[in-house]
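JOB MANIFEST
job_type = single_chain_structure
chain_count = 1
residues = 169
[input]
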Amino acid sequence: MKHLKNLLLTSAIILVCSFNAQAQSKVAHINTQELVESMPEMKSAKSELEKLAKTYETDIQAMATELQNKIKQYDAESSTKTDEENGKRLQEVQSMEQSIRQYQAQAQQDLQKKELDLLRPITEKAKNAILKVGNAQGFDYILDSSQGQGVIMANGKDLLTDVKSELGF
């Protein structure tokens, strides 16, 4: 009976150890934000976004200047105009203000859409390179160690330099 207990205990220990060995996974980490920021494509994407933003800013400034000039003109002429004319001018100014706000909102939406369109292929390229390097090195999991992504301590292998090499920079 004692021999049977020892055999069962030994079998249980071996079984637990084999499950433990199978359960251990290889884990690596990478700061994807740093990777994407360092990619050469990102520099040209930022440049294109800044150029577009500057165009919108110039347009909005021109519209605001036109509005300010019209307000000054209408203020200077208000005493010589009738209440009806001044009311129409007030509506015109309010309409111009609303047009500027709408243009600003549309410009913001366009910038966000353009940013997504420019970043999508860059992030996809980074993801594919991360997966390729991770698979080649036999990792089961690759955690994103970018700030705010939930990885507080990453003792696993950092793949950033390997992925940069894969991408050619």
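[summary]
Residues 25-167 form a domain with the Protein Binding, DinI Protein; Chain A fold (CATH 3.30.910).
Residues 83-136 form the longest helix (54 residues).
exit_status = 0
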